[in-house]
Design a protein that fits this description.
Elements lengths: L9 H6 L7 E4 L3 E5 L9 E5 L11 H8 L2 H10 L6 E5 L15 E6 L19 H16 L1
Antiparallel strand pairs: 1-2, 2-3, 3-5, 4-5
Bound molecules: adenosine monophosphate (AMP) and zinc ion.
Length: 147
């Protein structure tokens, strides 16, 4: 797939150098640059150079080119600072899921301590589901993958 751009997209403009960024890595398929909000120091975004809105628009080729580079960049960020003891990798899809820039991207958020400026809350509804309900959900998703 040739790299396509959306003229009104801020990340496409960053990819094309029309808007400056603190780029840390770039190849023919992806660009990685510092997130301007720096939730924690080193907070980085990885974007495919092809404009896709969200995870639902990737084909397997674009996914493999993009996702394959995540560990490389995560490892470089971690190696850059001995105080980094963990990392959250976050990909928001849709405004309901906190996406605000509609060019798909992955946040790499280095973690320094429980009190750094990143939080994530998972609900725990383990007790709310019967075996039958879980099987019904499983069956529906599986059938999508098999169709
Ligand atoms: P999300 O809310 O997952 O869509 O994340 C979008 C991210 O893009 C936010 O964390 C913003 O801080 C970041 N962002 C927006 N504009 C820029 C920019 N010009 N350079 C770097 N990061 C940006
Ligand atoms: Zn774009």
């Amino acid at each position: 797939m040739a790299n396509k751009r959306d003229a009104s997209c801020i990340f496409c403009k960053i990819i094309d150098g029309e808007i400056p960024s603190y780029t840390i890595y770039e190849d023919e398929n992806i660009k990685a640059f510092l997130d301007i909000s720096q939730a924690t120091p080193g907070h980085t975004l990885i974007v495919p150079k092809t404009h896709v809105k969200d995870i639902f628009e990737y084909d397997p080729e674009l996914a493999s080119k993009t996702f394959a580079k995540i560990p490389l960049i995560a490892q470089a960020i971690k190696a850059s600072n001995p105080n980094i003891i963990g990392m959250n990798i976050v990909n928001n899809n849709g405004s309901i899921a906190y996406q605000s820039v509609f060019h798909s991207h992955f946040h790499l958020i280095p973690r320094y301590s429980e009190n750094d400026d990143f939080k994530m809350i998972f609900g725990d509804n383990t007790d709310s589901y019967s075996k039958e309900q879980l099987v019904a959900i499983q069956t529906k998703i599986k059938s999508e993958l098999e169709s």
